[in-house]
Amino acid sequence: MPDKKYYGADAIVDSLVNHDVKYVFGIPGAKIDRVFERLEHPVNPKSPRLIVTRHEQNAAFIAAGIGRITGKPGVVMTTSGPGASNLATGLVTATAEGDPVLAISGQVQRADLLRLTHQSMNNAALFKPITKYSAEVQEPENISEVLANAYQEATAAKQGASFVSVPQDVTDSIVRTPVITPIQAPKLGPASPVEATLLAQKSKQLSCRSC
Q1: What angle is formed at CA 127 by the lines to CA 124 and CA 128, rounded to 5 degrees?
Q2: Domains of the chain
Q3: What pLDDT, on the 0 to 100 scale, is given for residue 1?
Q4: What global pTM score does this model have?
């Protein structure tokens, strides 16, 4: 019988769908396997295509290339420990060169975060200095909000990398909150001709009212 429960992993995939993500590059691992299973055997027909790479650093650079070509964040996904830390070179380069990237890594269960357990490390702190946004999801119901914030930050102002760490028990938890719609990122630079014309018209209208 198919599993009809809606898990954190489903919320991750549906959040990517909501942001029109077409590809996910990366390497699976125990702490994020449920998400990879959802990508490999999608329930949503609009799910991104999963492309498994030979190394996490390669996946990060490919995602950055997608970001540079399309102007939309390329997505890379890895497991915990070295799976996450191997992203560092690709993400720091993406941030320095203005390539939008969304990186998602697995993490040990929340109960093990402060213990010296296998692959337990502070992912969010590791990536904070080299990304525009770095956060760890602590509640399953907040998955889509954190991912939307990360995606928005990767595309806002000078583009760059965002990083989200997701503990294994968060991806494996039941989620009841619907995924949220994308957040529109503000853009720097001159207004388009259409926007400039509309602004001039509004300014003229306001000036006439004050006469």
Answers
A1: 80
A2: 8-210 (3.40.50.970)
A3: 40
A4: 0.85
